[in-house]
Specification:
single chain, 196 residues, mainly alpha, 9 helices, 0% strand, globular, transmembrane helix, membrane
Length: 196
């Protein structure tokens, strides 16, 4: 029964992946940047499926996260229609899909926890919580650094700006401050905000 559920999840994720590939809003370069982490993760899951099978809950979480990334890749995170509607209805300054995605990506901690419990001598104690939290934060920070590097390499080009998800969010300014150097105000993703 579990294999049927896992196959069904793979079918749904594959269908959404194919859909996301059809005329993505931001172009194919931005699409590739947005969906690459999900594709790499899914390949890892498929390679390890027979040797290290995760729980159905973990596969559901992985499927949800992949679908979120595929939808974000198709529309770009700042243009997902449902969340544009939410932005308009609640008079928000930005499309909240990016923040929703970050919130949901926190579910990956459950997958990390399962792997640590099964592959390490850790038990369900305080150290497990601390290590799961640390790994989750490290993964999130790595992704933000990759976004920043892509934007820097793209020299502020359209794909770089869209990948970074610039929507006038003050969190971007905080990121700028973290990478403070003599060229702080010349960085492409800081230009909109100006000096603090």
């Amino acid at each position: 029964m579990r294999s049927i559920i896992h196959s069904f999840l793979l079918l749904i994720v594959t269908a959404v992946f194919i859909w996301s590939l059809i005329k993505p809003t931001g172009g194919y370069l931005l699409w590739a940047l947005e969906v690459a982490p999900a594709v790499v993760g899914l390949i890892a899951v498929l390679i390890t499926y027979n040797k290290f099978r995760l729980s159905t809950l973990s596969y559901v979480i992985i499927a949800i996260l992949a679908i979120l990334m595929f939808v974000g890749g198709h529309y770009t995170y700042s243009r997902v229609p449902l969340f544009n509607w939410i932005k308009d209805v609640f008079d928000l300054k930005r499309n909240p899909y990016d923040r929703f995605g970050h919130f949901i990506k926190g579910l990956f901690a459950i997958v990390v926890r399962e792997i640590l419990l099964r592959k390490t001598p850790l038990t369900k104690e305080a150290w497990l919580v601390a290590i799961v939290t640390s790994i989750s934060l490290a993964i999130a920070a790595l992704y933000e650094i990759i976004e920043w590097l892509v934007s820097t390499i793209a020299k502020g080009g359209k794909a770089g700006k869209n990948f970074l998800g610039r929507q006038g969010d003050h969190i971007v300014l905080i990121t700028c401050i973290l990478f403070l150097d003599k060229n702080f105000f010349e960085r492409p993703f800081c230009e909109k905000h100006g000096p603090p």
